[in-house]
Write a structure and sequence with these properties.
Blueprint: H1 3-17, H2 36-40, H3 54-57, E1 69-79, E2 83-85, E3 90-92, E4 97-108, E5 114-134, E6 140-159, E7 164-187, E8 193-217, E9 220-227, E10 230-231, E11 234-243, E12 249-259, E13 262-263, E14 266-273, E15 279-288, E16 296-304, E17 318-319, E18 325-335, E19 340-349, E20 368-377, E21 382-400, E22 404-422
Antiparallel strand pairs: 1-4, 1-22, 2-3, 2-22, 4-5, 5-6, 6-7, 7-8, 8-9, 8-11, 9-14, 10-13, 11-12, 12-16, 14-15, 15-18, 16-17, 18-19, 19-20, 20-21, 21-22
Length: about 425
Amino acid sequence: MTSCSYSAIRLATALTLAFTSTAHATNGINLIGFGAESSLMAGADVAVARDTSALNTNPAGLTQIKAPLLDMFGSVLRTTDLVHKDPRNEEHASNRYTFLGGGGYARPLEDTSCTAGIGFFAQGGAGGVFDKIRTPFGNRDDLSSLFGIAKVIPGIGCQVNEKLSLGASLNIVYASIEQDFFANTSFGGLAGFSGYKLEDASALRTGFKLGMQYRVTPTLTLAATYTEKTELPMTGGTLVADYTSAGLGQVKYSDASVKGFALPREVAVGLAFKPADAWLLSFKLNWMNWDDAINDVRLRATKPNNPAAPAVYPFPTAAADWKNQWVVATGVAYNWDDRTTIYAGHNYGKNPIPRENTNPLLAGILEHHLTLGAARKIDQNWLATGGVEWMLPVKVKYDSALFGASELRNEAIVLHFMLSRRW
């Protein structure tokens, strides 16, 4: 890959990620859906996949796009109860709003049975910002982590025969992380606690997705997808550590990295069934291999600007040991009339984070999601889609080595919208 193309990809993914000041985890660190229809059917999308979000859900579905199509989509997330509680604190995260954005374009290829496209997607992430909470060292300081993932996805779907469609997409994944871990707190000298601020660590990696849709009858479609694991070692960052209690002040490390994160290997199967002309029922079962994706998270910083400081910033490896996750999604679409479609859905995935490894900076503990929305044809070319997703409240109690007996709560509301143009 040339430096020019690398820069272009990085810019495109960074622009997508720019809308995600914090991305709140849903199915682990993944969103439940991509694009408005996928999200409003609660992620029950592999057997439906009929707009440009098929690039990120099931590229075989691109074959259902019979004319050039442009989708522009976005979401606004409002946390209603993202709270960390311990014997000294009960604080709500100050970053209550998250803005997600993306889009896609696809068109049939002339003289072929294939449709190709490219899309930009906010994939997910996690993050919380807790301002001026009470530390275990008797002062107040900030605690935050902003971790986001975005994708640029080119892909193609081809209709093999009247029943079978196959597709493939290339996932170009960009991830970034920033953290403030009591950056103005220092206690006990070099052998004690030194808070830090991490900035500009990022990763750019590639992966792929394969998809299939098989139309058993005009009313029944079966589908399956496979997504390969994508490692996300975030490097190239800087870290400033507070060694005030050791008489060194603030020390800057010019080479910082965070390793141990990955997007998991996934296998999904689904079906879509039309019991009547106006109704579409969809189901998806998705296996997410978190056990092989997020185990130990390692922060490492070297090259300090003060030779008296430790050569390697001594922050311990954080155990994660995530468990594999089964996600069950059910969605329904009802054609109210020739111009209006109503959507609803439910998504469930058991929290993959072991209780003992819970922490307020990676709050991927959400399990149930309910969705409701509608699409309306403006005219023969334009379609507007919008709706709401409710991430139902969940609470985890755990023991923290830093905070003691702790509790993490999470709940949020998301507004989804999309504007589509066909030619």
